[in-house]
Amino acid sequence: MKIRVAKIADLGAEVKLFDDEKARLESFGSAKRRREFLAGRALLRSISSEHFPVGGDGESLRSAGGLYASISHGGEYVACAVAAYPVGIDIEEMKARRDYAGALKKAGVVARADISREEFYKLWTQFEAGYKFAHVSSAKPFLQSREWRGYMISLASANKEKLEIEK
After folding, report:
1. What is the mean pLDDT of residues 26-52?
2. How far apart are the first and last CA of the chain?
C-alpha cells in the first residue's frame, strides 16, 4: 500500500485525464473543486508512475487489474492511497467547531456531548474513509487514524498494514 499527502498548490494543474475524468472535472461548478480534483489525479499519477510502472499517465492503475485507489481533499492538502486491496482514505483539517456531537449526529453517528476535537475528527474521518471503502468492498474494514500537521487522516482497508505516509 502507498499513501501520500501533498499540498494542493504544489501539484501541477496540467495532468492527462481520461474521458470519464474529463467529464467529471467539467461537472464541478467551482474553480476550487476543479483544482482539488486535478491535484488528486496528479498525486494518483505520481504514485502510479513510481510504484506501479506501466505508464506515468495513470494507465498503469487502469490496466493492472486488482489495484484500488482512494483520494481525499481537506484544507490545503490532498491525500491518496493505492493498494492491491480495497481502501478508503479521508483527510480533514482539525478546525474548532461549536458542536462536535451535533455534527456527528447529522451523519448518523452517536457521540458523547463532551467529545473532544481530536475524537470528533477521528470519528468523522473514519466514517468518511469507511464510506469510501464500502463502495468497493462488503467486508468489514480495518480502521486506523493519525494526526498529521493539524489534520486527521483515517484509512479504511481490507488489510491491517500500518498507516504510514510516504514523504
Report:
1. 89
2. 14
Q: What are phi and psi of 85, to 5 degrees?
A: -140, 165
The CATH number that applies at residue 39 is 3.90.470
Phi then psi dihedrals of residue 32, to 5 deg = -60, -45
Q: What does residue 149 show for φ and ψ, rounded to 5 degrees? A: 55, 40
* Cα–Cα distance measured from residue 126 to residue 37, given in angstroms and rounded to the nearest whole number: 21
Residue 165 domain flag: no
Alpha-carbon distance 141 to 167, whole Å?
25
Q: Is 7 contained in some domain?
A: yes
What's the number of domains the chain is made of?
1
pLDDT, mean over the chain:
88
Tell me which residue range forms the domain holding 140: 2-157
* 65 has a pLDDT exceeding 60: yes
Q: What does the pLDDT read at residue 106? A: 84
Put simply, whether the predicted model's pTM sits higher than 0.85 gets the answer: yes
Residue 167 located in a structural domain: no
